[in-house]
Amino acid sequence: MPAIIAIAIALVAVAVAIAAWFKPAPKAEVPAAKTYTEQETADAKKAVCEAFDRGQATLSVTGSKTGADPNTAFAVAVNSRIAINTVIGYWRTVLQREPAAPKALAHDVIRLADTYEDILLRLLADATDSDLSGLYESVDRSVPVVVQACK
């Protein structure tokens, strides 16, 4: 009698296992896109625009410095590269912290950060001025777009 019960339990277990094997996995639910209030969007836009302005001011100050002797010129170049890297990271951090920022503004700031990052990488690889001219022109076109989006 115990052997029959054990066989019956085993058969039930096999049947359950087979049924579970062929049962489709539950579909993961896609969370609904988060919606933000007008106030949240305005606050995020303000934070992103303030970060943009702060970054541009930093780049303007460090980019305007020069050095007469080679050691000073080298220090200025290194400081400028550090500033570019810091501003890129700062903008990306603010954008992550402010998901309610308008998508177009966020896209424009990211595109500008990507361009600065490309400039930085090329500078570190000793790119020539002609290699960088197109990127500098891209920055010159992108900055006013972000400025306009921040109005």
Q: Key terms for this structure?
A:
mainly alpha
H-E order: HHHHH
Strand content: under 5%
Mean pLDDT, to the nearest integer, reads 91
DSSP strand tally: 0
Alpha carbon gap, first and last residue: 85 Å
Given as residue ranges, the uncertain stretches (5+ residues, pLDDT < 50) are none
Q: Largest beta sheet, briefly?
A: none
Whole-number total of structural domains: 1
Q: Shape, please?
A: elongated
Map the helices and strands.
Blueprint lengths: L1 H21 L15 H27 L5 H28 L5 H22 L4 H21 L2
Description:
The protein has 151 residues and is mostly helical. The chain has one domain. It has five helices and no strands. α3 packs antiparallel against α4. It starts with a helix and ends with a helix. The mean pLDDT is 91.
